[in-house]
Amino acid sequence: MTRGREPAVSAPLAPPISAALWLNTPEPVTLAQLRGRVVVLHAFQMLCPGCVTHGLPQAVEIQRAFDPDAVAVLGLHSVFEHHKAMTPAALRAFVHEYRLTFPIAIDQPSADGPVPYTMQAYRMQGTPTLVLIDRCGRLRAQHFGVTADVAVGAEIGRLLAEPGITAP
Amino acid sequence: MTRGREPAVSAPLAPPISAALWLNTPEPVTLAQLRGRVVVLHAFQMLCPGCVTHGLPQAVEIQRAFDPDAVAVLGLHSVFEHHKAMTPAALRAFVHEYRLTFPIAIDQPSADGPVPYTMQAYRMQGTPTLVLIDRCGRLRAQHFGVTADVAVGAEIGRLLAEPGITAP
Amino acid sequence: MTRGREPAVSAPLAPPISAALWLNTPEPVTLAQLRGRVVVLHAFQMLCPGCVTHGLPQAVEIQRAFDPDAVAVLGLHSVFEHHKAMTPAALRAFVHEYRLTFPIAIDQPSADGPVPYTMQAYRMQGTPTLVLIDRCGRLRAQHFGVTADVAVGAEIGRLLAEPGITAP
Amino acid sequence: MTRGREPAVSAPLAPPISAALWLNTPEPVTLAQLRGRVVVLHAFQMLCPGCVTHGLPQAVEIQRAFDPDAVAVLGLHSVFEHHKAMTPAALRAFVHEYRLTFPIAIDQPSADGPVPYTMQAYRMQGTPTLVLIDRCGRLRAQHFGVTADVAVGAEIGRLLAEPGITAP
Fold first, then answer.
1. DSSP per residue over D84-109, as a string?
2. What is the mean pLDDT of each run of 10 residues along chain D (168 residues)?
């Protein structure tokens, strides 16, 4: 349930994305580069049915609905189970077959457990998780599971209406 | 395609709703009463397949996603064809069967043609049409046909982020 | 759950269709005329959401899947509630807007209650109801509510595999 | 388009299934064991979007609609592209996540090309492919791509109506 207008916010910066590898981009992407844009980060696993039927189609819909100079859509492949099945080679085939075109980070595996680094840094509960980062790089919303398109759209719309970084 | 942040806007007031009758409300609703809220006005015909499969479910989704004190959802039954079929009695049965709970105006029939008054005043091209009115009562967007939930959500989110009417 | 092969059956003839009016056909249709074909009779109300979202699309799908000389699809508008809303004029508009092309009978209103004649004769519980009649005119299946397409297809396939009327 | 009743048919036996491995069954399954039942063989690839959104849900729907003693549903994982991505370990994870419970054969890889043995033997054009085998083990229908549930149901219903193997 989304309420009315809110005052200027105070929120921490979103943790950096630790990637073992990036797909769909010639160079690694950093959140710092994306200052000035709203960032939609969709964390998924290629063998997670909720991601395939809901989360990824929503990310594609967001990519289609907004000017890429205003809203950057990123994928984050955060494998915390079935590690042998969801390899980089498997993800490449998946991304090719499902025709995903936004940059996708392979979340950096952790040395001390099944949950990869970025997933840990964001304290995600599972996949799909949708993260919204404002024009100033601050973490503003994080949703685990299914969120209605209208509600996600409204959150993005609000972040777009906020002032971005002012030049020094 | 929705771009970045926009400056304060200049837009005309939305035309008033001319209703022959209101359903789902004890008293007629006026746009003037709703100043301070974003208004989502969904114009439909009960026998329009695009309204039944897309437009009305989207209106229900919007009603579910937002605080009613922030976003008011209204229906407008704008009959411009099959007038004998889409009578007030028929609409009442439809609204009951489809469990619609937001206030619905029956657009005032015109004496000089098939297109009712409010539909004329808004120069709508047909149904479904989605109209967005800002907190100040200004007409800010009007979409004929199917619009993606994410995009509509973003437009509502932006209007919610604008300042409303300041008390005198 | 559909079992294996069954022996030759004994079943009563399907009651005749009592129609006040037929749409989408120059002449009234009788079940007797359709001997030799499997008949799929879909009873609906134009303001019944389950009919609009499930039953009628299934009837259209059946019409599309089979040779009309083998399977005849008929609609039956059995109004047992909201009689003032679901008039013949309203049904005509509905059939036009939803582009239904199979013959549709308006079930004959009853003098002594809200339930029309054919609906009474078949002892239907409500709408949507799907009735299957074999090549010999016998009532072979009747389903109230939602039935899976695969299961309905299998029932039609079995009836198609039975011998029809033998010439005397 | 499915026509009326057909005479007793003459059709070749379905080729045997060459499997490198079976999932969801303690013992390998052979078509010979299934004589007396109609067999629905669904050939898929786990990273084929048409299989995930259409073919596999249809196979699950068929499994749900029929008595398993009358209709046996089998999966066939016929990998002809992205071999490194669609390994047995990956398929196991996929089957677990998508909760598939029918027996699934991993099609035997071929020494002389990317197309596996069973896929070659059936001359399949790609995935998804739906194969229908009658009670006598004969190949009766093979559909590449999307086939409507009603039409597939009708084909199964017809095969169920045919006599099975007579005991010697």
1. TTS-HHHHHHHHHHTT--S-EEEEPP
2. 56 97 98 97 97 97 97 98 95 97 98 95 98 97 97 97 66
Q: What is the ipTM of this complex?
A: 0.88
Domain extent listing, chain A: 19-74+81-122+149-161
Residue C57 has what pLDDT? Answer: 97
- pLDDT tens-digit map of A102-158: 999 999 999 989 999 999 999 999 999 999 999 999 999 999 999 999 999 999 999
A65 to chain B, minimum CA–CA distance in Å? 5
Give the span between the Cα atoms of B77 and B21, in whole angstroms.
Answer: 10
Say how many C-beta atoms besides its own lie within 10 A of residue C38's C-beta.
26
Rounded Cα–Cα distance for residues A74 and A77 (Å): 10
Looking at the complex, does the CB of residue D90 fall below 8 Å from at least one CB of chain A? yes
Domain C19-161 architecture: 3-Layer(aba) Sandwich (3.40)
How far is the C-alpha of A11 from the C-alpha of A138, rounded, in Å? 6
| pTM score | 0.89
Q: Which CATH superfamily is domain A19-74+81-122+149-161 in?
A: Glutaredoxin (3.40.30.10)
Distances (CA, A) of B116 to A77, B45, B119, B122, C75: 53, 12, 6, 10, 33
Measured distance between the N- and C-terminal CA atoms of chain D, rounded to whole angstroms? 36
- Architecture of the CATH domain D19-25+34-161: 3-Layer(aba) Sandwich (3.40)
Query: And the tokens for C90?
Result: 């309203």
* Residue from the list A52, A81, A89 with its beta carbon closest to the beta carbon of D52: A52
- In the chain, the amino acid numbered D167 is A
Chain C residues whose beta carbon lies within 8 Å of the beta carbon of residue B87: 84-85, 90
